[in-house]
Specification:
Elements: E1 4-7, H1 9-16, H2 20-35, E2 41-42, E3 45-46, E4 49-50, E5 54-59, E6 64-71, E7 77-85, H3 90-106
Parallel strand pairs: 1-7
Antiparallel strand pairs: 2-5, 3-4, 5-6, 6-7
Length: 107
Amino acid sequence: MLYKVELIPDALNDFDALDKSVKKQIAKKIDSLSENPLLGKPLGNKFGINLTGFYKLYVAKKKYRIVYHLIGDCLEVIEIIAIGKRNKEEIYKLAASRLKKFLKKKK
């Protein structure tokens, strides 16, 4: 079964800004994710940033991370929140700020 994978607009911008060779590797990993939504490792409280319910997925020899979460009671959509270099906690801060912005829009 294939699952629907969506990138939020900011994550799509992350993807578009990447080098062509890295894009290819990330696209391949996203395809794998559509087949197995639990491919990534669960996140919790990382560096004081609460990302419980989110997952991380390494790409390009662990130089990049994809941060995503699952949407729906019956797993309807896999939503990618951020794509970026594996630089300490920066990607987690980026994902958390995008999550806050997204939650404000929903109110």
